[in-house]
Design goal:
Number of domains: 1
CATH class: Alpha Beta
CATH topology: Alkaline Phosphatase, subunit A
CATH architecture: 3-Layer(aba) Sandwich
Structural class: alpha/beta
Oligomer: single chain
Order of helices and strands: HHEHHEEHEHHEEHHHHEHEEEEEEEEHEE
Radius of gyration: 25 Å
Number of helices: 13
Strand content: 5-15%
Helix content: 25-40%
Number of strands: 17
Length: 489
């Protein structure tokens, strides 16, 4: 009997020791994430404030930060940048089978008896010393053409909006992977302790013609610790949720509550080693600091009139694309690593003749102003601006082109994006499509190639930025992607 009791006690002690060992070991997993916050309160040794992974960047970076102007709904490359004057003579003719090559179509056009060629509904000119072709609906972007690097040979596999957008922003069509901004927050850390490393803003066309939704996972952290997810700025109420203190709660009282709550969370973390507890502590601290940093950030009264005028009249409407572009510049100025602007309204299946011009008018001036504003402040050199959507639009018409309402369907085989600053080659056009702007003809750039190139400009080898999850080392580009050296300055 005594022997049995001794064995049971020994087993219990061993299990207790195992729990202690794994709990204490797990505590070290996310210690780096807490270092900045703890150092500020005297609870840890002095550490670099930027965070990030040891050894990053892997090599000298050309860019320090990214502003992604994501044009949700897929802009028509054929009407904006990829000029095909020969299609004027093909108007109404059926798209040749030799061009389509059996590509699957969406359910919206798969049943059409014909796929009539629809030429550009805009006119084009060459602009700047580079001679870039830009449509007449984008006069301001045309004005900064020599600062832009056009990639006219993008392609993807996804044919519907949500999977395609998820693919561009996370490297996979299914939700659950970390977004590009989360990868950068994890790998490179922050240059500002008073603002999030990764910020997201959304806007849509004033006519609300586009039904595309913005899902939180577009700026999510996936399987990375949730402290790396994007913080969304809102267009009503507090710019960030729960920024204001509740009625009757002073800032000093809130500080005391956070200190006590942080101590309780640290006790719990020491016991169980859950890295999400560290996230909770860090996010509470960030929220407290944002009470002073965010109101100053969104205050436009200190901006000179000529700067506000540069972004256009819509800059005064909170939540507009113009307003968000100006806030993006201010975030970049304060060292925020990744700013993701998402603007809906480009899904023009039945309203191309009317909505394309309106959409261009809403986004053209702010996009160009952002490039110019960064440049005049000396920020464009190390800020990479990316403009583009999830795929392109078909060169054939959806609906009856002789009616008032018609448009273009989704097209993953070819589309255009442009980049500016941050080491992208200015005044350069990379790749080309065939005579119908349907297939890539030269120097194709896959979505994973674009992602690899963005990381490269930030000094990151895309094959070496990984995170182990469920026994596998994941990366943004999965097992694909090549840096497009030709677009690097």
């Amino acid at each position: 009997m005594n022997s049995h009791r001794h064995d049971a006690a020994a087993a219990a002690q061993l299990e207790s020791t195992r729990r202690w060992f794994f709990g204490r070991s797990a505590t070290g997993i996310g210690t780096a994430a807490l270092a900045t916050c703890l150092a500020k309160s005297g609870l840890a040794a002095e550490t670099p404030s930027s965070g990030g992974l040891p050894g990053l960047p892997h090599f000298a970076a050309k860019a320090k930060r990214v502003i992604y102007l994501f044009q949700s709904g897929a802009p028509s490359h054929l009407d904006l940048y990829d000029h095909k004057p020969n299609l004027a003579d093909q108007r109404g003719a059926d798209l040749p089978d030799s061009i389509r090559m059996g590509q699957r179509l969406t359910t919206m056009t798969a049943g059409q008896k014909k796929l009539p060629v629809l030429p550009s509904i805009t006119t084009f000119d060459r602009h700047g010393d580079s001679g870039a072709t830009v449509c007449n609906f984008l006069p301001h972007i045309a004005g900064v053409a020599d600062d832009l690097c056009f990639v006219k040979s993008m392609y993807t596999e996804a044919i519907n909006h949500a999977p395609a957008t998820t693919f561009v922003l996370s490297g996979a069509e299914n939700p659950g992977r970390p977004s590009l901004g989360a990868w950068l927050a994890y790998g490179l850390g922050s240059d500002n302790d008073n603002l999030p490393t990764f910020c997201a803003m959304t806007s849509r066309d004033k006519e609300k013609s586009c039904g595309q939704l913005f899902y939180d996972y577009y700026w999510g952290s996936g399987f990375l610790p949730s402290k790396y997810q994007g913080v969304k700025f809102r267009d009503t109420g507090d710019p960030v949720l729960y920024l204001s203190n509740p009625s009757g709660v002073s800032r000093d009282l809130r500080r005391g509550l956070l200190d006590d709550l942080g101590e309780l969370n640290r006790i719990k973390h020491d016991a169980v080693g859950d890295p999400e507890i560290e996230t909770r502590i860090a996010q509470y601290e960030m929220a407290f600091r944002m009470q002073t940093s965010v109101p100053d950030l969104v205050d436009l009264t200190k901006e000179p009139k000529h700067v506000l005028d540069m972004y256009g009249p819509d800059v005064h409407r909170r939540g507009s694309f113009a307003y968000n572009c100006l806030i993006a510049r201010k975030l970049a100025e304060k060292g925020v690593r990744f700013v993701q602007l998402m603007h809906a309204g480009w899904d023009q299946h039945r309203n191309l003749p009317t909505q394309l011009e309106i959409q261009c008018r809403d986004t053209d001036q702010p996009s160009a102003a952002l490039v110019h504003d960064l440049k005049q402040r000396g920020l464009l050199e190390d800020t990479l601006v990316v403009w583009g959507g999830e795929f392109g639009r078909t060169p054939f018409c959806q609906g009856d082109m002789n009616a008032k309402a018609y448009g273009r369907d989704h097209h993953p085989r070819a589309f255009t994006v442009w980049m500016a600053g941050g080491g992208a080659k200015p005044g350069h056009t990379h790749g080309k499509t065939d005579d119908y702007a349907y297939n890539v003809a030269e120097d194709g750039v896959h979505v994973h190639d674009l992602q690899a190139t963005i990381l490269h400009l930030l000094g990151i080898d895309h094959e070496r930025l990984t995170f182990k999850y469920q026994g596998r080392h994941f990366r943004l580009t999965d097992v694909h992607g090549h840096v497009v050296e030709d677009v690097v300055a």
